[in-house]
C-alpha cells in the first residue's frame, strides 16, 4: 500500500491518467445509446461519414440547424478509428475525462500546490454527473471544458501576458463552434462581472478587452461564415429561432420549476456539492492568495445557475458548466479540512 502511495505522489500525472482511464474507458460500448441527444449526435457523425459531407451537420441527410459541427467531428474521427458503434460515439468524452482531470491538476498546481490540484482533479471526476457525462456521447463536457479554459486564460490575460488573451479567445471560439452562442453569454458575462468586481479600469485593460472581443468574434464565426457563404443565411436563421425557442418555451416538453437546477446540482454533483456547506471556510477562501480566481469561479457558478433557472427549457445538463465552480470550492474545503501541512504539498 505504501509503495502505491509513493508512486502516486511521485508520478501524479501518470497516476491520474491510469485512475481516470479505468473509470471512464471500460464497457463504454456495452450499453446502447439511451439518451435522445446521444443518439442524435452519433447519427450526425454517422451521416457525415456516409455522405462525405463533413462541413454541414445532417439528420436523415437533411440539414440539421441546432448545433455547429465541432463535437461531431470528434465523433467522426473516433468512428474512423473504432468503427461506427457506441464505443466510438462515447470515446471523445472518455478521453476528455482524462484530459480534464490532468488540466484541473495542473491548474490547481499553478494556483496553489500539488495537493490542491489533486483534490480538484479527483473531486470533479468522482462526482456523480461529471463521471456519468464522461461515459456518455453528449456534447456538453467538451463545451464546458472549452468555456472553462477560455475563462481561465482570460483570468491570466487581463492581468498578465497578451498571449493569454489569444488563448482565451481561441477556446471561446472552440466552445461557440461546439454548441453555439450560449458560450458567449456564459463566458462574456463571467469576465465582465469579474472585471467590474475588481473596479480597476485602465486603458491597457480596455485595449485587452477590445482585442479579446474582436479575436473571439473572428474565431467564433469561422464555421458560421463558411456555412453562410456556401448555403445562404438559412442555417443562421433556423439556429437563431431554435435558440429563442429554448429560452422562451419548454422545448420538447423539457420544463420544470425555477429551482430545478438547484436540485440537479445539489444531488448530481454529490459528493462535491455537499462539501460546499462548510460556510465558515469561505472567509478563508476569499482571503487566500487566489481570491481573484475564487471570485471568478463563484461568479461563473452563480451566473450559470441563475441563467438556466430563468430559461424556460430545463434539461439536466444545461447547468453542467457549474461543475467546475462546485468542484473548485469543494477542493478548497478538503484542502482546509485535512490541514495545510502534508507530504503531498509542493
List keywords for this structure.
346 residues; globular; 70% helix
The N- and C-terminal alpha carbons lie at a distance of 22 Å
The proportion of residues in beta strands is: under 5%
Low-confidence stretches: none
Share of residues in helices? 55-70%
Main sheet makeup: 2 strands, antiparallel
Summed up, the helix count is 17
Strand adjacency order, main sheet: 1-2
Report the principal-axis shape.
globular
Structural class: mainly alpha
**What's the count of strands?**
2
Mean pLDDT: 89
- Kindly provide the radius of gyration, computed on alpha-carbon positions and rounded to a whole number of angstroms: 20 Å
Provide the succession of SSEs. Answer: HHHEEHHHHHHHHHHHHHH
How would you describe the overall organization of this protein?
- The chain is mainly alpha-helical.
- It has a domain at 96-337.
- It contains 17 helices and 2 strands.
- It has helices spanning 2-10, 12-24, 36-51, 70-82, 86-111, 114-126, 128-133, 140-157, 162-179, 182-198, 203-220, 222-231, 234-248, 260-268, 282-285, 291-310, 322-337; strands at 58-59, 62-63.
- It has a two-stranded antiparallel sheet with strand order 1-2.
- The longest helix has 26 residues, at 86-111.
- The protein is globular.
- The protein starts with a helix and ends in a 9-residue tail after the last helix.
- The mean pLDDT is 89.
Question: Topology of this structure?
Answer:
Elements: H1 2-10, H2 12-24, H3 36-51, E1 58-59, E2 62-63, H4 70-82, H5 86-111, H6 114-126, H7 128-133, H8 140-157, H9 162-179, H10 182-198, H11 203-220, H12 222-231, H13 234-248, H14 260-268, H15 282-285, H16 291-310, H17 322-337
Antiparallel strand pairs: 1-2
Helix pairs in contact: 1-2, 2-5, 3-4, 4-5, 5-6, 6-17, 8-9, 8-10, 9-10, 9-11, 10-16, 16-17
